[in-house]
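To: structure desk
From: M.T.
Subject: fold request, one chain
Message: Could you run this one when you get a chance? Sequence is below, nothing fancy, just the single chain.
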Amino acid sequence: MATLTAYFENIDDPRRDEGKRHPLISVIVLALCAVICHADTWPEVKEFAQTKEDWFRQFLELPHGIPSHHTFRRVFLLLDPEQLQQAFLAWVEAVQEITGGDVIAIDGKAIRRAFTQGGKKGAIHMVNAWSSQNHLVLGQAKVDAKSNEITAIPQLLEMFLLQGCIVTIDAMGCQREIAQKILDEKADYLLALKKNQGTLYDDVGHLFTYAQAENFDQSDMDYVQQVSKGHGRVENCQCWVVADPEWLAYLRRQHDWPRLRTIIKIEARRSTDDKRRKVDKRYYISSLGPKAMQILEATRAHWGIENKVHWVLDIAFREDESRLRMGNGQENMATLRRWALNLIRQETSVKMSIKTKRLKAGWDNDYLLKVLFG
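Reply: Done. Structure tokens follow.
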């Protein structure tokens, strides 16, 4: 257990001396273990820990037994979220290594029930970073109540080494300053475009329309097509990547994008057994070279943050239902959820859903130890 508690040694205890009946490290470890084991509220955390009190006494200092749910709530309400985040980042750095070519997907997520009636406090928004190669949440940053994801993304990019990686962001993060920040970290950007990007979206669309009419200049273009089948659906995905010097020079002059090397068009045609058809067309800009397969795979990897992080947090961890609203409670609980998700994903000895693994860890102490320490 010392290998886990070491990450919490530099976290300051926010309680007054007379209120420190329960050691801070014990409170944090109990909460993390409880969240792993399907406890999603502070009363559930307390009941879980109380049920396993004798077992936890083998590893933790519990001079006054298990804290009440009020104590758990108060500690995490007051706890500095940046310090807990630093402990999480130190653990992530210890268990994985970001290597060149890894796709780092960045996307925002709202915790919708974390608001107060009357609009005094809105829903909390978090921006997450996901390593598609390591299948780990790398970090998170809270979006300021009076701001948006644009200000949180640069903070997130500073939390870990990105050298040699490909950073993918949806249209909200398609900003020159963010692109430059990624380049400063010696990584490449792949940014989605939408019509809210002013004339950039239209210019890229017009250039592709013209190029397809002229049948492209093959020396400055790469193309790949993939067809996949499954779950009663056929998807035909085509990717065009253009690096025409004159086009890019025009876009740089008009929009002043740093190290813009390619523009991308991806068109996905889906058909289902009931003969429904859907065509999805997307444009991107990138500092990557004209390698269509690499770029198409990177855009597919980006969806891992939706399918393997945000969806799992809402379905398996019920994050979207969380009603924690006071102080730092919601942000700290969000860190515990992501830590728990990473630990569960790292445990691969059994093939089960995330939800079933959480339940098994709660039932089986040996399996909980395996989740915690491999």
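Reply (cont.): Strands lie at 103-111, 124-131, 136-142, 166-169, 188-193, 221-230, 233-242, 262-272, 277-286. Let me know if you need anything else for the meeting.
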